[in-house]
Amino acid sequence: MTDLADQNARAPLGGSADLDKIATSPAPHAAGTAPMREMTADLVVIGAGSAGLSAAAGAAQLGLSVVLYEKGEMGGDCLNTGCVPSKALLSAAKAAAEIRDAGKFGIETTPPRIHWDKVKQHVNASIATIAPVDSQERFEGLGCTVIREHAKFAGPDTIISPTTRVKARRIIIATGSRAFIPPIEGLATVPYLTNETIFSIPEMPKHLIILGGGPIGMEMAQAFTRLGAKVTVVEMGKALGRADRDHAEIAIEALRDEGVTILEGYKATKIEQDGEAIRVLTEPKGGEAWTLEGSHLLVAVGRQTVFDGMDLEAGNVDHDRRGIIVGDNLRSKSNKRVWALGDAAGREQFTHIAGWHASVFTRRAFFKQGTKADSLPVPAVTYTSPEVAQLGMTEAEAREKHGDDISAPSFKFEESDRAIAEANTEGEVKLIVRKGKLLGASIVGKDAGDLIQLVSVAMSNGLGVKDLTNFISPYPTRAEGVKRAANAHYADVVFGKSARLLVSLLQRIP
Ligand SMILES: Cc1cc2nc3c(=O)[nH]c(=O)nc-3n(C[C@H](O)[C@H](O)[C@H](O)COP(=O)(O)OP(=O)(O)OC[C@H]3O[C@@H](n4cnc5c(N)ncnc54)[C@H](O)[C@@H]3O)c2cc1C
Ligand SMILES: NC(=O)c1ccc[n+]([C@@H]2O[C@H](COP(=O)([O-])OP(=O)(O)OC[C@H]3O[C@@H](n4cnc5c(N)ncnc54)[C@H](O)[C@@H]3O)[C@@H](O)[C@H]2O)c1
Question: Pyridine nucleotide-disulphide oxidoreductase dimerisation domain: which residues (predicted)?
């Protein structure tokens, strides 16, 4: 089956759902207060972010009655405070970097002048252009009842908000996550930034200190450096710690070359304010402690799921620190009516995973298929320049599990004619292979996030490394690198002793 729910969130308007299925009746109420609206629905979705919207759109277009709750902005984190503003900011920053770098093509330019207010206008315009796809109007057009209120459980099958009580056959918790604020001494006393505030700061920071060298920290570090700020990243472990180590190092070095200071192995332990300045005291794993002084502080040390005031106990929905406790069917283990999708499910936290979760829900709940949340390899891309794209197992994970039974054929972009023509040869494609089976891939370099999709299609559909050699790849493209890494897997076989012997024997045939 195709990815119905996943497609529907951003698809054009479809047919309207059967609104008659939503039974509405006034309930008894206290004198002087508005009556509580009573409804029944096939599906209640709490949270109109990537996960909730995708699931709601799928269900509504299948003719089911859907009530969609959102207490904040339609579109959730990805549209308003996550993917979209961060990628819009990175694009503005890339434009500035390319102007500075144009000399390598023999083009003379003057240094770019950054107008932060206009950069923010670009960020806001990007959000505004995409917003109609996630809007209340669009979802009402699809047949959903959209309620812009905080929702909570009033029982295992009942959700209430200030105006409405809904009894539902199924309930989706898609309430997302917010920045985790670590218990560092003094942090609460300083005006720190998170992804909710960084995109609207009034002025370009003089010195932005970023706590955390994960995807958020590294993307913002490069964006703000390229836009003219001094940036220091304080990372207690390794920056881009979930990526292939060799490939993460290539990106880290590229950011350092552009002027980002990245301190790895330094944990922030105390924060102080001194006038306008924010001071970060760090504890090193070895070596000297650093005390940094900056004008702004961004906290990007991971995420925390959002279940505020939801009375999960009333719904008999168990959760832990990671999220709602679900199996790989995404169904609450303690209340089978309830499903958790997206960041709230306590698994990988990406918009494409939120969309995939909605697809798993739709397939399981409505088409009675057995699709599992972990049935496909998960891609993760950090959109720095160079991009770092990871799929399935890293080389280190595969070696830990299978020892020397794996191989990691690779192709460096310095051998790519396209990369040479673009004067951007940094990076590599690496495949992780065991007995011809693809276990994973990592790509670092320009457009790595696009290139890894080839391997993603192959892995998701049971193709092996051989299949990645058996197609005609247009020249000159960076995607040829995937084919050439796959070819490298067979280099010894194709050009080895026995192949040469075979060919010489075959030459005797007239
Ligand atoms: C800076 C940043 C950059 C990112 N970049 C990328 C990227 O490039 N690619 C990528 O794949 N992912 C990226 N992500 C991650 C991605 O944004 C999230 O994984 C995704 O938004 C999760 O979607 P969701 O639907 O689970 O939650 P959310 O988008 O957080 O939506 C949850 C919604 O639920 C609402 N809600 C919560 N509680 C209630 C309640 N009780 N009643 C009513 N409504 C409620 C909230 O207001 C919110 O709108 C990024 C994240 C950040 C922070
Ligand atoms: N391009 C993308 O797809 C993208 C971009 C941004 C965010 N996201 C999603 O959002 C999630 C959260 O991103 P994130 O970067 O906030 O979290 P993260 O968990 O990926 O990285 C946080 C980093 O902070 C470090 N850290 C924790 N406490 C620290 C301390 N006291 N001092 C110094 N370092 C400390 C950790 O070691 C870790 O490396 C990601 O995992 C991803 O799922 C995705």
Answer: 378-485
| pLDDT for the residue numbered 481 | 98
> CB within 8 A of 117, min separation 6: which ones?
none
pLDDT grade, residue 174 (50/70/90)?
very high
355-377 b/e with 16+ CB inside 10 Å = b? bbbbbbbbbbbbeeeebebeebb
Query: Whose structure tokens read 């950069």?
Result: 119
Q: Is 265 in the pocket of ligand 2 (CB under 6 A)?
A: no
Q: Cβ(71) to ligand 1 under 6 A?
A: yes
DSSP string, 324-370: B-B-TT-BBSS-TTEEE-GGGGSS---HHHHHHHHHHHHHHHHH---
- Please give the number of the atom of ligand 1 that sits closest to the Cα of 195: 1
The reply to whether 219 sits in an annotated binding site is: yes
- CA-based radius of gyration for the chain: 26
Q: How confident is the model at residue 32 (pLDDT cuts 50, 70, 90)?
A: low
Residue 270 CA to residue 281 CA, distance in Å, equals: 5
- Single-letter amino acid code for the residue at 85: P
Ligand showing the shortest atom-to-Cα distance for residue 330? 1
Q: Is 215 annotated as a binding residue?
A: yes
355 lines ligand 1 (CB under 6 A): no
pLDDT at 145: 98
Model confidence band, residue 3 (pLDDT cutoffs 50, 70, 90): low
ipTM of the complex: 0.98
What structural domains does the chain harbor?
A: 4-74+135-178+304-367 (3.50.50.60), 187-302 (3.50.50.60), 386-497 (3.30.390.30)
Give me 65's structure tokens: 């009655």
Residue 508 CB contacts under 8 Å (≥ 6 apart), including other chains: none
The finding on whether 82 has its CB within 6 A of some atom of ligand 1 is yes
Asked whether 448 lines ligand 2 (CB < 6 A), one says no
